[in-house]
Amino acid sequence: MQDAVDLYLDLMKKVLANTIYEDPPIPASWAPAKEYDELNRRLGVDWPSVAHTMIGIRRLENVENCMATVLKDDIPGDFIETGVWRGGTCIFMRAVLKAYGIEDRRVWVADSFQGMPPTHSSAHDGDRRLGTDRYNELLAIDLPTVRQNFERYGLLDGQVEFLPGWFRETLPSAPIDHLSVLRLDSDLYESTMETLVHLYPKLSPGGFVIIDDYHVPVCREAVHDWRAEFGVTDPIEDIDGLGAFWRRGG
């Protein structure tokens, strides 16, 4: 049985990151490559033109390991990613639940579905300097497209919940009771802070926080400012030189 689970999830990672058909990346200022490179895709440092996730194989493996741990240890709660792009990581989360036959937990898909917020109006100087909203032509993946991507894998069902809108508007009142994995992929200081403030209290002891953009200075600053303010001292662990995570203590 475990062999079948491992085979299915390994295939899902390869398809979601598209290491099978090796789609060329979209050149960007932070990722100028124009040709597919296996190492870049494994580390999630290119911008795929077709693949449903840009986080790469290593960070998908981290998601799998965190989810398998909380399921094995019976840590209560659902799973969420804040900032989903084409939906690939959340699709993988739903695939993990499917593979393990889990029917009493949900995957929450939180995104504006209209790209990054206008950083010129941000209260944080670092967000304004980052200016990620200039990439919204490529980052803004609408909700129908993300739903369709779930359908392509046969994974759109009642265990998938969507939270469309800006985090400051949706997260404070999100109808989530408990979380066991909280994954942030939101780049900016304000969105990182908003997510941690509103969702970390719902994370069960023994659950995991995953920060995809920990290498981005404003994101890392928000994480450390929040941890200092709320006295969180659980050790932060590196994933791949870009993302990081920690496990919530008791």
Automatic annotation (TrEMBL):
GO molecular function: methyltransferase activity
Keyword Cytoplasm: no
One of the protein's GO biological processes: methylation
Keywords from the UniProt entry: Methyltransferase, Transferase
Superkingdom, natural source: Bacteria
Entry keyword Transferase: yes
Database matches in InterPro entries: SAM-dependent_MTases_sf, TylF_MeTrfase
PANTHER family, sorted: MACROCIN O-METHYLTRANSFERASE
Protein name, as recorded: TylF/MycF family methyltransferase
